[in-house]
């Protein structure tokens, strides 16, 4: 069923608990950390149960989680303590995934605690598997596994839920299409009177599809299709080849018949709760978790207030700084977020989540910090291809091309989704370091993975640029340097005339007069009263392409000129430099080009320009051949 869909057990970070008045304890189990005010016995029983659930999912999935780090659980001892944090009026427990950590929050103890624990744990699994399921299936699967029981050496799940059966028999049936189309903000998911229909009907449909001989063979296909974005009703109809109305009719008969299957799997669990030691909880951690739980249950303003109080208590703890950084980022205050990320990082928070988010956010305005954070992340996770590519992009944009290549060469394998950006960065960095043959090989591989016309066009421009460089080098080797002008003769500046013609064509000036004679330069004899013009014969021109000398200059683009021939103004270490764009359609462009409007740029853009020598007598610094924007 769900074996092929669930990808990994969730990865969770530190938590605490909310109220300081109750007696809070901390218990560290084999794979869970708990902060609880519910009493030691109930807390131990809950942890023991969670360890068994974890062992079941590892057995069910066939492998342990990729990152086997502790899961943190918050358990309140009374409804009064839990009340301020409830996400809605009827939730006895909830799963909270914040920007940098996850919580399973239990609002009460008692006979049904075990069921609630597994239900919320299933939500964590679904989240970290990136399943993105609609509410009916998300809750239906969680309820399916919530009846987890250890029966000897067997595990039993999918037992019938009496509460849901009573609801289905006593309440008015809501059309199943309405339940399946409900989104996360729907009243059928948030209002207690309506939500009972979604939970009950969603569980019943999931149970029928997952456990009955007629439907269970197609359940994995249904779940997979929905995960990929297919509408629930369409996925069900397409999988079973039946009208949805017919499936709804069979569901109502299934409920009325009351013949429910359970799923039984063999699993040997070895869990001992006696070795776990309870100790008084650190109140700073309790208050930190309290602030983070308000991120969902109350308001951002309340969370910020609690975190600021914690900073007054101990400003050297990195956790409040990290939490405030995520709040600032959520509010669009990127500078404030970067300041707080940097503070948390400096104080020792080098978690992979913080390094990734801090590094990406710092790329635009604080590339040195981005380089440091992403380098630390790659050191912790040397196989993290996304982190390596991001680090290389930071270095490329800083014009540290050899260091960008150094990062990229550490990548051994990449997915088809990662390959286009990988080979794009590699090819462009190789161009910048003069490794043209290697750049051609990387560009060829980039083309093989390109998925959009825009990407293919970028590769084509880069390959065209490489072709031009190769042709220019070949011609330079054959033609050699031009012969010297004979002494006393007049010099014909044919290159100057060609550029004048190109400028006229670009600015739509009048065409050159076909009868116009070549320009001659006068040579004044020392013993003559007036200059003597000597007309030299013009031989038939050699039909070989001129040698093109291509130079490069880096800086920031600050202005574009559109009056007459287009120009680009670059601010460099040597001052302002102006370049003609004689043939925009033939100009090679690499990287991500911004929108270029006429006039001054609203924001300076890093740019490297490859250019020919400027025409003699002109006031520009060169003629553009290629533009290299950052990736």
Give me the Rg, rounded. Answer: 35 Å
Tally the beta strands: 15
User: How big a fraction of the residues is strand?
Assistant: 5-15%
* Helical segment count: 23
Please mark out the parts with pLDDT under 50 across 5 or more consecutive residues, or reply none.
Answer: 1-20, 485-496, 502-549
The SS-based structural class is: alpha+beta
Helix proportion range: 40-55%
Average pLDDT score: 80
First-last Cα distance: 42 Å
Overall shape = elongated
Q: In order across it, which strands form the biggest sheet?
A: 4-5-3-2-1-9
Structure description:
There is one protein chain. This protein has 631 residues and is an alpha+beta fold. 47% of the residues lie in helices and 14% in strands. The protein is built from 23 helices and 15 strands. It has helices spanning 40-61, 79-82, 113-128, 135-146, 162-170, 176-181, 187-190, 192-211, 219-227, 232-240, 244-257, 283-297, 300-313, 318-330, 334-346, 352-362, 367-380, 385-397, 401-408, 419-432, 436-449, 453-479, 494-507; strands spanning 25-28, 32-36, 71-75, 93-97, 102-106, 149-151, 154-157, 263-266, 278-280, 550-561, 567-572, 575-580, 588-590, 599-612, 622-628. The strands form 3 sheets. The chain has a 6-stranded mixed beta sheet, sandwiched between helices. Strands 10-11-12-15-14 form a 5-stranded mixed barrel. Strands 6-7-8 form a 3-stranded antiparallel beta sheet. A hairpin with a 3-residue loop joins strand 1 (25-28) and strand 2. Helix 5 packs across helix 8. The longest helix is centred in the C-terminal third of the chain and has 27 residues, at 453-479. The radius of gyration is 35 Å and the shape is elongated.
């Amino acid at each position: 069923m769900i074996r092929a869909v669930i990808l990994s057990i969730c990865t969770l970070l530190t938590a605490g608990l909310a109220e300081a008045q109750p007696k809070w304890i901390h218990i560290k189990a084999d794979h869970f950390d708990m902060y609880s005010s519910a009493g030691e016995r109930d807390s131990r029983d809950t942890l023991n149960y969670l360890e068994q659930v974890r062992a079941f999912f590892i057995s069910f999935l066939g492998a342990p989680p990729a990152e086997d780090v502790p899961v943190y659980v918050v358990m309140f001892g009374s409804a009064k303590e839990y009340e301020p944090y409830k996400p809605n009026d009827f939730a006895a427990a909830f799963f909270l995934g914040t920007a940098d950590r996850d919580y399973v929050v239990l609002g009460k103890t008692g006979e049904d605690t075990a069921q609630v624990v597994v239900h919320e744990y299933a939500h964590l699994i679904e989240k970290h598997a990136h399943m993105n399921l609609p509410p009916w299936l998300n809750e239906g699967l969680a309820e399916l596994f919530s009846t987890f029981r250890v029966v000897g050496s067997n595990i039993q799940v999918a037992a019938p839920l009496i509460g849901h059966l009573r609801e289905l028999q006593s309440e008015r049936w809501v059309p199943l299409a309405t339940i399946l189309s409900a989104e996360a903000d729907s009243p059928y998911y948030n209002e207690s009177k309506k939500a009972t229909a979604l939970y009950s009907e969603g569980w019943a449909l999931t149970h029928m599809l997952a456990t009955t001989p007629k439907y269970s063979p197609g359940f994995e296909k249904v779940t997979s299709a929905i995960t990929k974005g297919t509408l629930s009703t369409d996925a069900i109809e397409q999988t079973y080849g039946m009208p949805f109305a017919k499936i709804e009719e069979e569901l109502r008969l299934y409920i009325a018949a009351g013949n429910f299957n359970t799923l039984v799997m063999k699993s040997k669990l070895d869990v001992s709760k006696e070795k776990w030691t309870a100790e008084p909880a650190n109140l700073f951690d309790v208050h930190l978790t309290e602030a983070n739980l308000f991120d969902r249950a109350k308001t951002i303003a309340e969370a910020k207030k609690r975190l600021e109080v914690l900073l007054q208590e101990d400003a050297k703890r990195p956790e409040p700084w990290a939490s405030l950084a995520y709040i600032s980022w959520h509010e669009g205050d990127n500078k404030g977020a970067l300041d707080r990320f940097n503070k948390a990082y400096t104080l020792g928070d080098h978690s992979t989540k913080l390094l990734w988010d801090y590094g990406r956010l710092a790329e635009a305005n604080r590339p040195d910090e981005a380089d440091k954070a992403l380098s630390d992340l790659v050191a912790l996770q040397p196989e993290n291809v996304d982190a390596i590519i991001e680090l290389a992009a930071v270095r490329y944009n800083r014009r540290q091309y050899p260091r960008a290549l150094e990062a990229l060469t550490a990548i051994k394998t990449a997915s088809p989704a990662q390959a286009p950006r990988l080979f794009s960065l590699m090819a462009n960095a190789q161009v910048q370091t003069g490794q043209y043959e290697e750049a051609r090989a990387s560009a060829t591989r980039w083309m093989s993975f390109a998925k959009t016309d825009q990407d293919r066009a970028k590769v084509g421009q880069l390959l065209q640029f490489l072709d031009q460089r190769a042709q220019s080098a070949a011609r330079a080797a054959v033609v050699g340097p031009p012969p010297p002008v004979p002494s006393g003769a007049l010099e014909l500046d044919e290159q100057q005339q060609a550029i004048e013609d190109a400028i006229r064509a670009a600015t739509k000036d009048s065409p050159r007069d076909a009868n116009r004679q070549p320009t001659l330069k006068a040579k004044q004899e020392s013993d003559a009263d007036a200059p003597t013009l000597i007309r030299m014969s013009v031989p038939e021109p050699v039909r070989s392409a001129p040698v093109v000398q291509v130079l490069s200059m880096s800086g920031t683009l600050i202005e574009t000129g559109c009056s007459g021939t287009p120009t680009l103004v670059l601010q460099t270490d040597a001052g302002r430099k102006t370049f003609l764009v004689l043939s925009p359609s033939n100009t090679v462009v690499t990287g991500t080009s911004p929108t270029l409007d006429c006039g001054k740029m609203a924001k300076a853009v890093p740019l490297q320009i490859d250019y020919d020598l400027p025409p003699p007598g002109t006031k520009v610094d060169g003629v553009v051949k290629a533009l290299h924007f950052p990736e």
